[in-house]
Amino acid sequence: MIGLIVTILVVGLIAGALARLLVPGKQNLSIPMTIVLGVVGSFVGGFLGFLIFGKDSAQGFLQPAGIIGSVIGAVIVLVIWLKVGGRNSVRSR
Q: Which keywords does this Swiss-Prot/TrEMBL entry list (predicted)?
């Protein structure tokens, strides 16, 4: 169980960092938020992979296609975050 959690966090960090490198512009995200971005991106990438290909993780979680899907999902989540939720709530006049 601990190994699965560590694997999810490491893949999340890698996917989040790669997504931040691929998306242009400045993202003010800390390392924990980068991990969260990667983990959420992994779920989005896995869900999209299931919708497109109709397969789940029966062959194991740590596969090259899964990591690529995680990065693609993290890029999608990051772009949505920058467009919708990345704004400051306090505006100067």
A: Cell membrane, Membrane, Transmembrane, Transmembrane helix
CB-based contact 76:17 (threshold 8 Å): no
Return mean pLDDT, the chain. Answer: 78
The residues near 56 (Cβ < 8 Å, ≥ 6 apart) are: 50
Locate 17 and state its tokens: 């960092």
pLDDT band at 65 (very low <50, low <70, confident <90, very high): low
Report the b/e string of 15-47 with b at 16+ CB within 10 A: bbbbbbeeeeeebebeeeebbbbbbbbbebbbe
Per-residue model confidence (pLDDT) at position 84: 84
Residue located via tokens 């999340």: 12
